[in-house]
Amino acid sequence: MTDDRSRRSGSRVVAAWAARGEIRRLAGLDIFTVDIPPAGPESAEPLLVLHGFPTSSFDFRHVVDDLARRRRVVLLDLAGYGLSAKPDRPYTMELQADVVAAFTAGLGLDRLALLTHDMGDTVGGELLARQLEGTWPVEVTRRVLTNGSIYIGLAQLSVGQEVLLALPDQALTGAGLIDGPGMAANLAATFSPASAVDGRELDAQWELISRAGGHLLLPRLIRYVEERRRSEDRYTGAIENHPSPLAVVWGVDDPIAVVSMTDRLLEARPDASVTLLGGVGHFPMIEAPGRFLAAVTPALAGPSPAGP
User: Are strands 73-76 and 47-50 parallel, antiparallel or unpaired?
Assistant: First the structure.
């Protein structure tokens, strides 16, 4: 990994992020949440942000304050991730959507925009399916979708992901298979070669992944890939069919959620806007936060919370 100074620096960044949030009891679990009020007059609907595997809401720390210039921004660490509870149990998209639904209900949100990444795209797909069915009483006004394997047949899974999927759906009994240096290498491999990967970033990510033994749960957490395979029609179908305006912001150099997925999505949603970020990999909000914001901010622009 890196030296002690880098690890201490990473820990300070994690602590600063933790201080911005609070633990809420949601769907029977202790879930870390962040609720950022608008910096100025509120002129846009709240924004719900959903992170991916195997990281957490921490990924968005570089961009949340800019996103909150004129709107409330709410984030959470999904069950089993980051600073949230990590019980040894199955982790399904249904569970994660239940957690998010409890979060929005507890905040009294019935109208919001949605920004999703990686596995968060699939959690978002389940929520959109529920909204279309009338079982999630929240109006989704507009959406921004970022790098995630919504078409699992096109995904180029990493060796590490394949190894985890080959394991039983149970917690590891020892840490030998997954350690800090290995996880750092796996995460770094998803960044673009053009991105400068900061060792402090990797240290911080490992601290959050391994907190409370979370790294031992990775064979359980990664089962979302199997759910995508089984239920792509439901998750990606809702992403394609939900009537809210859709924008796509994609790091072109993503080695797993390859850029050709955007072409397929455009075939289903020719009205979607697509911004491709060259020289950026799987984590555009970390690798190029300024360019990410430049693409996301206009996509999220719209009428006031009261509607047109």
Answer: parallel
